[in-house]
Amino acid sequence: MDNPSELETANSSFYAHFEAADIQGMSDLWVNSDEVWCTHPGWPTIFGWDPIRVSFEQIFSGPELPQFLTSNVRFHGDDQTAWVFVEENLLGSSLSAVAAVNVFKREEGTWKMVGHQAAPLIPDLDLTSGSETN
After folding, report:
1. What is the spatial distance between Cα 92 and Cα 116, in angstroms, rounded to a whole number?
2. Under 8 Å CB-to-CB from 114, ≥6 apart: which residues?
3. Residue ranges of the domains in the chain?
4. What radius of gyration do the chain's Cα atoms show?
5. pLDDT value at residue 66
6. Nearest one of 101, 123, 104 to 113, comparing CA atoms
7. Cα-to-chain-centroid distance, residue 112
8. Nearest-CA neighbor of 120 among 85, 94, 102, 92?
C-alpha cells in the first residue's frame, strides 16, 4: 500500500459521518452500487447502496447517535483493495464494544467503502478455555 494515511483518512471519515448523522458524507464515501454490503450489529446483512443508505437514515433518526472511540486499528491490503479491522468502543449505547471490518477499494484514486461488518465483542473472554472470566 503506497499511502496508508489515505486509507486511514477514509476509515476515520466513516466514523465522523456516522457521529454527525451525515448521510451525504456517507453517500460520498461508499461506492453507490449493488456490490456493497453492510452488517450492523444484530441486523441481517444488507446489500446495495440504496438499502444501506436507508439503514443509516433509520439509525440517524434514532433517539441517540453513538460516539466512537476506536482502538486496535489494523490496516491491510494493497493499492487497490484494503480492509481495516477496528474495535469500536461505543459511548452512549447498550453495546459497549464492537469488532468491525471496513472494506475499501480504490475508485479513480480515492478509497471508497464497499463493506462494513460489525459484531458485539464478548467481554473478558478467556481464549485458552473458551469461557468468560469474572
Report:
1. 21
2. 30, 31, 35, 36, 37, 103, 104, 105
3. 4-120
4. 15
5. 83
6. 104
7. 12
8. 94
- Phi/psi for 64 (5° steps) reads -150, 125
Quote the mean pLDDT of the chain: 90
Binned at pLDDT 50, 70 and 90, residue 19 comes out as very high
Please name the residues in contact with 72: beta carbons below 8 A apart, sequence gap of 6 or more: 85, 86, 87
pLDDT tens by residue, 47-65: 999 999 999 999 999 888 8
| DSSP symbol at 61 | T
- What is 4-120's CATH topology? Nuclear Transport Factor 2; Chain: A, (3.10.450)
Please tell me whether residue 15 adopts helix, strand or coil conformation.
Answer: helix
Whose CA is closest to 86, among 10, 1, 2? 10
For 108, list phi and psi in degrees, rounded to 5.
Answer: 50, 40
